[in-house]
Amino acid sequence: MQSVRTMSIIEVHDLTKIYGGARGKDIVALDKVSLSVKHGEIFALLGPNGAGKTTLFKVLLSIVRATSGTVEIGGYPPSNPESRRKVGYLPENHRFPDHLTGLGLMRFTARLHGLSAANTKSRADDLLELVGMSKWAETRIRKYSKGMLQRIGLAQALISDPDTLLLDEPTDGVDPVGKIEIRRVLEKIRSEGKSIVLNSHLLSEVESVADGVAILSKGHVLKVSTVDELTRRSCQYKIEANLSGPEIQISPDVGRILSFTDISMTVELEDERLINSVIDELRVRKIEIKSVVPIKVTLEQSFLETIGDEKGEAT
Q1: How wide is the angle at C-alpha 149 spanned by C-alphas 146 and 150, nearest 5°?
Q2: What CATH architecture does domain 1-86+162-178+186-218 belong to?
Q3: What number does CATH give the domain 235-296?
Q4: Which of these, 47, 67, 126, 248, is most buried using a 10 Å CB contact count?
């Protein structure tokens, strides 16, 4: 019997999805995609339109069937309804019945998940408060703004207390204050040991909340990494110190100095472990070191470089 206790909550191996196109021309939406999402992790799928992010969600939820490859959620394939029992979903461009109130939607969703009426009211009230929608619980959805629709969408995705959340553009149309509040909600969910997979075009938001990232383009996975690894400029460090004396020299075998002033220097090393050699050299000269900081780039810069490299290879 297969155990549902796996190292990762989501496992995707060599997943391919091909749609039949017009005039017999097939469309490859996903091409041998492999990735995994750990328990208690916020994992982001990044990529331009048409990269295959939403198709991956649809395969995970058994909305469409994979052409080949394997997928598991909690140890179950999408063909097994158990794979979705503890999954919450917020689709992009969702369409909730607009004659319902926010509370009515929560009750309706709870019934779909098989929750008892006794537990639904308190659960709905708690979630509406969590996403800042208590004030509009009795307001019909047709009167909601785009930001309010995203908040109520997040609340309904949480109604069954899922172990895994799939969120497609969760902050789309949300104002800056609302984005901060949704980020706070996602961080709270993660702190409870739950896993979140999100699609987003807002890379600054992803950078502030995600642990892991997969960059997709034209159905291919270009890179799977942590946010920290993607934003850390390899082997470059800024050292703040009193450098008013003679200019420091480092061996070419260690690296090179990119910039030098009386108060700081930037170095690029052959290996990140060699930063200790530079620090030792400064200490031998009795130079007081104030800080040693790895140089980082934004997630957006790293994303554009990755996509640019892929385009460069294709030409």
Answers
A1: 90
A2: 3-Layer(aba) Sandwich (3.40)
A3: 3.30.70
A4: 47
Residue 234 neighbours by CB under 8 Å, 6+ apart:
272
Question: Is residue 222 classed as helix, strand or coil in its secondary structure?
Answer: strand
Q: Structure tokens of 95?
A: 């369409």
Query: Hey, what are 42's tokens?
Result: 């916020």
Contact residues for 311 (Cβ-Cβ < 8 A; gap 6+): none
What's the CA gap between 8 and 45, in Å, rounded?
16
Q: Model-level pTM?
A: 0.79
pLDDT digits (tens, 9 = 90+) for 210-237: 999 999 999 999 999 998 888 877 788 9
Beta bridge partners of 256: 268
Q: What is the residue-wise DSSP string for 127-192?
A: HHHHTT-GGGTTSBGGG--HHHHHHHHHHHHTTT--SEEEEESTTTT--HHHHHHHHHHHHHHHHT
For residue range 28-52, list pLDDT tens digits in order. Answer: 999 999 999 999 999 999 988 889 9
Per DSSP, the three-state class of 36 is: strand
Same fold, 1-86+162-178+186-218 and 235-296: no
The pLDDT value recorded for residue 1 is 38
Q: Which tens digits make up the pLDDT trace of 287-303?
A: 999 999 988 888 888 88
